[in-house]
Amino acid sequence: MQSLFHDSSPDFGPVKYEVNKDLIRQLESSQQQLQQLRLEYDGEAKLWTETKDSEESLQQEMNSMRTLLDRNSYVTVLIDGDSLTFSKELLSKGEQGGLDAAQSIAGVVKSFAMDGLPHLTTVNIHVKLFMNVRGLIDTLLRQKVIQTSVTYENFLRGLLNSSMIFDVIDTSCMKGMTTRKIKESYRHDYINVHCHQIFLAALANADLAALLNETPDVPVHERVTLLEARGLQSTDKFDHEIQSIKVDAFLTKVGSEMTAMKTPAAKIATPVLARIESNSSSKTINSGQASSTSTPVLTWAAMTAQPFVPKPGDVRSGTSTPISATTPPPKTILPAIPRNKLGQRVDGVDESIPYQELQRIKKMKLCNIYYLQGKTSCSGECGHSHTYPLKTAERNILKEVGE
Fold it and tell me: DSSP labels for 196-251?
């Protein structure tokens, strides 16, 4: 039976060989794939480790750089002093008003930094005030905002003596110089990585709009804040929304709500001498008259008035007759002598003399003493010309030059 069964069973030898061969081939392929995956995994793991190390290194470098930037960080305040000025109350205080104005600016900036710049531990404030100093002082004097130029000079001294960096840039009287300086400073600050915020206090005109619109980047505009003063009205629209802070409590437009109120001139009450007591024994004065005339209204004119001294001929001996106060004769008002800003006298020029002739005589360097006072009045050490044959008309021009 066994032989019969063995003989009838099929021969699986070749089939088993092929199956085993195929299994071995699959095993080798799987091993190769496993090895490839292992290599890829090792490469990915190495790359991940290197990336993590590089990221940590970059993070540390960025933190150190941020610390360095924050340590040297600052915010800048640019003020157009030709268009905006501080309130009359601050200006009238002189140096103390300057210190108070600087403190007000610092308060606004620090209040903004608490919410808008929380990463800064300390806020360094750099304020730049651009203006024509002489022109602004003349304007404030003309508008009766200040009484003397010394008041404003003391106010500026208070600003400069404040704890923050405060620069006053005198742009002279050249037209458009203030706007140009503000633009240059703005462009320098918004590309400076140490400058974290720019506060602009200027007129909202076409120049300011063009300045802000020339940098269309939104992150740049997030670093710009407008300080809105009293009397400003926006006339131009910006391409991007700009945040603003009202500072009308201490900053105002020049000529807006700061001109002194014109009050009628106070009537100067001059003391009237109703009765001058004589040396006689009669000193009885009517009570009603005494209350109204013996105590005149105390005014500055009364305090500075010279006491009335009667002339010896007007005093009558042995009588108590009152002497009426006579009105003093009007004083002759002499014409004022024209002077320049330095207080020096300015003499008028004869307008009938041609300008070219006046300049020609000046360039000739003639000796005034020799030609106007005579030869004997001139010393021998004079370096001017004495040989030119001067005509009568030229002598008159030389006289005008000498004056």
Answer: EEEEEES--SHHHHHHHHT---HHHHHTEEEEE-BT----S--SS--EEEE-TTTE
Residue 171 to residue 179: CA distance in whole angstroms: 9
H or E segment to which residue 22 belongs: helix 13-71
Of 210, 203, 267, 209, the residue nearest 231 (C-alpha): 203
Distance CA 197, CA 75 (A): 5
Residue 126 β-bridge partners: 76, 165
Query: Quick one: pLDDT at residue 128?
Result: 92
12 three-state secondary structure: coil
Sequence-distant (≥ 6) Cβ neighbours of residue 229 within 8 angstroms: 84, 201, 247, 248, 251, 252, 253
Pairing of strands 125-131, 165-170: parallel
Q: How far apart are CA 244 and CA 320, in angstroms?
A: 78
Q: Are 84 and 204 in contact (CB under 8 A)?
A: no
Provide the CA 2 distance to its chain's centre, in angstroms: 120
Give the model confidence (pLDDT) of 21-65 as tens digits.
Answer: 888 888 888 888 999 998 889 888 889 999 989 988 898 888 888
Q: Which of 105-109, 196-200, 272-276 has the lowest mean pLDDT?
A: 272-276
The CA-to-CA distance between both ends of the chain, in Å, stands at 161
| Structure tokens, 228 | 């809105």
- Asked if residue 222 has pLDDT above 70, the reply is yes
The 3-state secondary structure of 317-344, one letter per residue? CCCCCCCCCCCCCCCCCCCCCCECCCCC
Phi and psi at 12, nearest 5°, equal -95, 10
Q: Is 0.90 surpassed by the pTM of this model?
A: no
> How does pLDDT run across 289-341, given as a tens digit for each residue?
444 444 444 444 444 444 555 545 444 444 444 444 456 666 666 666 667 66
Phi-psi label, residue 318: left if phi above 0, alpha if psi -120 to 50, beta otherwise: left
Quote the crossing angle between the two packed helices 95-116 and 149-160, to the nearest 10°: 40
DSSP state of 109: H
Phi, psi of 25 (to 5 degrees): -65, -45
* Rounded Cα distance, 366 and 395, in Å: 10
